[in-house]
Amino acid sequence: MIEVDGKEHISFDSVPWRSAEEGQQARVLFDGWRADNCLKTMANWESWEDYYESAITTKGTGIKVTAEGSIGVLRRIFIRAAVQKQWGCDSGLTYKALAEQLTGLGYATTVDECKNAKRAKLPEHAVPVTVGTTTFVKMLLEYYPAMDLFKLFPLGRMDEVMQRLAKV
């Protein structure tokens, strides 16, 4: 953050995109995001990061991004892994107990969501790397220490995920 005309604004260093296509995609997404948003604070940055990461990470996975953003993506994928007893997420909880556990952590979940997750596709590497998802994962790891983070997050981003988890 830097001061501009007596007000705090966000400031960046930058690196080039890996390709022109990647840069163009980011620009299109940013133009859509900024129609209702402004990039001046760290909270704005986290909103933009969530929007961008959710769009690029879930592309082609069959997971839709809802108003919950990246946290909703993680919540739904985690529920699927838990009820399908995959990726170290099996705790033996009933649908009701799992829904109550997640709701108790602050992530509203219904019993029907848990029931429907039993037959839903479980895509790998579809959880965006954001402030919200790393905070949520940190909580989940307390209950599910064997959870396989490599199945959740995009390939090649585990170093970043581990750095973010260490800061939470």
The count of strands amounts to 2
State the end-to-end distance.
Answer: 20 Å
- Largest sheet, if any? 2 strands, antiparallel
**Number of structural domains:** 1
Strand proportion, as a percent range, falls in under 5%
Question: What structural keywords apply?
Answer:
single chain; 168 residues; mainly alpha; two-stranded antiparallel ribbon; 2 strands
List the helices and strands and how they pair.
Elements: E1 2-4, E2 7-9, H1 20-33, H2 42-58, H3 69-83, H4 95-104, H5 111-117, H6 131-143, H7 149-152, H8 158-167
Antiparallel strand pairs: 1-2
Helix pairs in contact: 1-2, 3-5, 4-5
Characterization of the model:
This protein is mainly alpha-helical and 168 residues long. It has one domain (2-167). It has eight helices and two strands; from the N terminus they run E-E-H-H-H-H-H-H-H-H. The chain has helices at residues 20-33, 42-58, 69-83, 95-104, 111-117, 131-143, 149-152, 158-167, and strands at 2-4, 7-9. It has a two-stranded antiparallel ribbon with strand order 1-2. A hairpin with a 2-residue loop joins strand 1 and strand 2. The longest helix is centred in the N-terminal third of the chain and has 17 residues, at 42-58. The protein is globular, with a radius of gyration of 17 Å.
Compact summary:
The protein is mainly α and 168 residues long. The protein contains 8 helices and 2 strands, in the order E-E-H-H-H-H-H-H-H-H.
